[in-house]
């Protein structure tokens, strides 16, 4: 009889005990938060054009404008060339604005083709473009939300280059890193 009572009690204990105490819960729960930050759009505007000056010469050479700030720069000249007027010689300048102290990437074509107009129609000269040294790895930093980019170049002038005005355009693209 003791065995029967013990068996009945054991069965009753199994029926009363919840099933979760015999098996691990197959689910687990964790909570995460979501967030977003909106920053000011990045903007660029040209503040000065790249100008190699007024050049004279009959032999080939180069005219180099440094990629630095300044309204007027003295070009570096090689070959049998001279710059008649340096009053316009300057690097291109761009103003960049955006968010706080963010960094940004700079992308530009490494060359510029200047095409003749007027008496030099159909003639060209090529310049290798140079980004200012402060933009190591073509990356800039917005100090307090603003920065400047300077672009210089090395213009190659052919021997007996046709006289006349030459012009061309190049783009500078920026993106937040």
């Amino acid at each position: 009889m003791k065995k029967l009572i013990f068996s009945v009690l054991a069965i009753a204990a199994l029926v009363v005990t919840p099933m979760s105490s015999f098996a691990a819960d197959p689910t687990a729960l964790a909570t995460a938060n979501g967030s977003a930050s909106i920053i000011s759009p990045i903007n660029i505007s040209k503040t000065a054009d790249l100008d190699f000056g007024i050049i004279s010469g009959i032999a080939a050479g180069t005219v180099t404008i440094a990629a630095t700030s300044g309204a007027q720069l003295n070009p570096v000249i090689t070959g049998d060339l001279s710059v008649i007027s340096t009053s316009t010689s300057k690097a291109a300048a761009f103003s960049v604005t955006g968010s706080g102290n963010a960094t940004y990437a700079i992308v530009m074509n490494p060359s510029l083709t200047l095409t003749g107009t007027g008496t030099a129609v159909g003639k060209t000269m090529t310049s290798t473009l140079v980004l200012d040294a402060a933009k190591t790895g073509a990356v800039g930093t917005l100090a307090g939300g603003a920065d400047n980019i300077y672009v210089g170049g090395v213009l190659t002038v052919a021997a007996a280059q046709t006289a006349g005005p030459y012009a061309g355009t190049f783009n500078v693209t920026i993106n937040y890193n």
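The chain is about 10% helix and 45% strand. The longest strand covers residues 54-65.
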